[in-house]
Design goal:
Layout lengths: L2 E5 L2 E4 L4 E8 L7 E7 L6 E6 L6 E3 L7 E6 L4 E6 L8 E8 L18 E2 L3 E6 L1
Parallel strand pairs: 2-11
Antiparallel strand pairs: 1-3, 3-8, 4-5, 4-9, 5-6, 7-8, 9-10, 9-11
């Protein structure tokens, strides 16, 4: 019912920047909680950032806080992840996800992959040293 397509990944040098986009189709995600997750080879998928319907409700993993910014454009049904000061440890496949019925009472709840109803196929981000 909802399709999510990530774009904007690529190869960048350490210290550089990338802007990832997540385009949703099929239904509006304006009322959804949206999340970015990432998965490196041999590692579990980990939380990166979330944003609620209220644009002021954002939450970040400690590893990216101060470097990454999540945002959304409801008119375009699109979510973004601006990534600055990239490090080799940021290398991973980045996934966009949508929780269509957000009901969490705390931020931790939205870091759990089980909360999300739809997932994109991912976009590769590679940071060279």
């Amino acid at each position: 019912q909802v399709q999510l397509v990530e774009s904007g990944g690529g190869l960048v040098q350490a210290g550089g920047s990338l802007r990832l986009s997540c385009a949703a189709s099929g239904r509006t995600v304006s009322s959804a909680a949206m999340g970015w997750f990432r998965q490196a080879p041999g590692k579990e998928r980990e939380f990166v950032a979330t944003i609620r319907k209220s644009l002021g409700r954002t939450y970040y993993a400690d590893s990216v806080k101060g470097r990454f910014t999540i945002s959304r454009d409801n008119a375009k049904n699109t979510v973004y992840l601006q990534m600055n000061s990239l490090k080799p440890d940021d290398t991973a496949v980045y996934y966009c996800a949508a929780d269509m019925a957000p009901s969490c009472s705390d931020n931790y709840c939205y870091t759990q992959t089980s909360r999300y109803d739809y997932w994109g196929r991912g976009t590769q981000v590679t940071v060279s040293s």
